[in-house]
Amino acid sequence: MEMKDKLLQLREKAGLTQEELARRLHLTRQAVSRWETGETQPGIETLKLISKEFSVSINTLLGSPKTLVCQCCGMPLTEDDLISAEPDGTLNEDYCKWCYREGAFAYQSMQQLIDACVPIMTGQHPELTEEQARSMMEAQLPRLKHWQV
To answer: What domains sit in the chain, N to C, each tagged with a CATH number?
Structure first.
């Protein structure tokens, strides 16, 4: 779905007029209209405001051009409700809601994360042994941004 269509859909779902959305974003109704017709697109700072207003990721606003992956545990972030949030409610597209909550990381070490995730992985995939799950995580985690210190 194109950004113009996504913006229209989100605005209508929230029951807002173009004027009401513009007022909330401190912009003109014409700016909102131009986005919804595809004539222009909001800048990055405005995208951040829209993201916060509708509680969706910027990736979603842009039509999901890339697959997001939690940079702590490696889980695909396929839905916005899996994405973490900052204390002010802004979505943080780098992490899942289980690894990063309100500005703080839930796991202080890779081993702590692995110990928490292995039972979940083997529970969801009975064909996977605990040793295989640990091995997969030990191989994947060092490649993620959070663990590259």
So the answer is: 3-61 (1.10.260.40), 67-149 (no CATH)
Confidence of residue 102 (pLDDT cuts 50, 70, 90): confident
CA distance 125 to 48: 37
The full 3-state SS of 82-102, as one line of letters, equals: HEEECCCCCEEEEEECCCEEC
The residues facing 76 across adjacent strands are 69
What is the end-to-end Cα distance of the chain in Å, rounded? 37
Spatial contact of 98 and 74, defined as CB atoms under 8 Å apart: no
- Summarised one tens digit per residue, pLDDT across range 44-80 is 899 989 998 998 888 888 877 778 999 999 999 988 8
